[in-house]
Amino acid sequence: MNKQAALHHFKEHHFTPLLDIQLDRLEAIFHRYQAQLISDLKESFRDLCIHILNMQQQGQKEPIGYIHYSFLRTQMLEQSYLYMVEAYSAEWYEDDSDCKLTYDASWAYGPMSTMLEALEQERKIYMGTITSVDVERLILESAPLFHQFVNSLLRLGMAEVVQMPEYLAIHKADRVVIRTGEYKDISENLYVEDQEALLADHVREQLIHSSEEEPFVYENLKRLSLPHLQLMQKDLRYNDFNHSDLRESQFHTCILIGSSWQRANIEGASFQGCLLTDADFRYSNLKGVHFCGASGQPYREHGVRVPALCGLHFEHSILDGADFTNAHSFEHAYFEGASMQGALVPRKYQQHWKLSEAQCQSIMWAE
């Protein structure tokens, strides 16, 4: 067996099956200990904000424009799973005043150590054709699959961390962006905050005229008055509509993956045929909203589980009279504290959703 054939066989029969097992276990940990993981994240973020403010009070740091969570692939083989968390001014990488701490993500990357140890034994049956370097390379290539769990945790916790007094106290640039990704490589927005008020009419025009070639994604659309918005087949993934007024708006077959609508007024709106995977509607007014034909479809391919790790969140929202007719892939939806009087829900979700007795009795179950 030549080198290429041996690597293919090793990956197919040893590496990939073991990776799948570890990702399944990690997903179970992610959901079971989510509250504690978010609490630990908040403590880490609090420490960063205190450090930032101390530097600013000593005149060593300009107003913050970027906070970046970076995983360091090169340190993983040393079993160091610390994220570099750096704060920059609006100049981003041109800001040379170091302001950084670390975030311990060993809860997510620990399985890599288990895999390395197991695969070191498995490679020996290939009689020297597969080396330790080959095993290490495969392990490092899988790093983004473990990062997706940290990414999802950051998204779930972001609404809480940006409300902490320590974050509110730091001096910020006109625009603050919190991002995550590989160190000084590809990264994505987790949170965007503008200190200057956005103009609702301008945002409305941007949304209406967005296109497949120029999608409107990862943006801050908080605290805007946008009632009666009419949008069809728009890519609006990961936009932040928190606290906005979107009454009677129509989102028809739009991509709304990872969008956030916390404490928004969306009464009487429609999300007919929309892709809502990982959307967050906590504390929002969804009275009479139509979710007919909407989807929370998870993504599952070659270990990739994002979007879908976060689930659909409706905790403490008002869903009175909401219509979930023909909504599919809504199994991982959460409704703790939500009002659901007269909500029309397919009976198939009765076994999946963790509902209170009062919620179950107030829902109109449809076959």
Task: Give an overview of the whole structure.
By secondary structure, the chain is α/β, with parallel strands linked by helices. It folds into two domains: 3-180, no CATH class; 198-367, Pectate Lyase C-like, CATH 2.160.20. The chain is built from eight helices and eleven strands. The strands form four sheets. The chain has a five-stranded mixed beta sheet with strand order 3-2-1-4-5, covered by helices on one side. Helix 8 (357-362) links the parallel strand 10 and strand 11.
Distance between the termini: 57 Å
Mean of residue pLDDT values: 94
Quick one: overall form?
A: globular
Give Rg in angstroms.
23 Å
So how many helices? Answer: 8
Strand count, sense and barrel status of the largest sheet are: 5 strands, mixed
Helix share, percent = 25-40%
Residue runs with pLDDT of under 50 for 5 or more positions: none
User: Into which percentage range does the β-strand content fall?
Assistant: 15-25%
Number of discrete domains? 2
Q: Report strand order across the widest sheet.
A: 3-2-1-4-5
Q: What structural category arises from helix and sheet content?
A: alpha/beta
Order of helices and strands: HHEEEHHHHEEHEEEEEHE
Number of DSSP E strands: 11
Describe what is shown at a glance.
The chain has 367 residues and is of the alpha/beta class. The protein has helices at residues 3-32, 34-57, 106-122, 132-141, 143-161, 165-169, 200-209, 357-362; strands at 64-71, 82-89, 100-104, 172-182, 187-194, 230-232, 250-252, 312-313, 333-334, 344-346, 364-366.
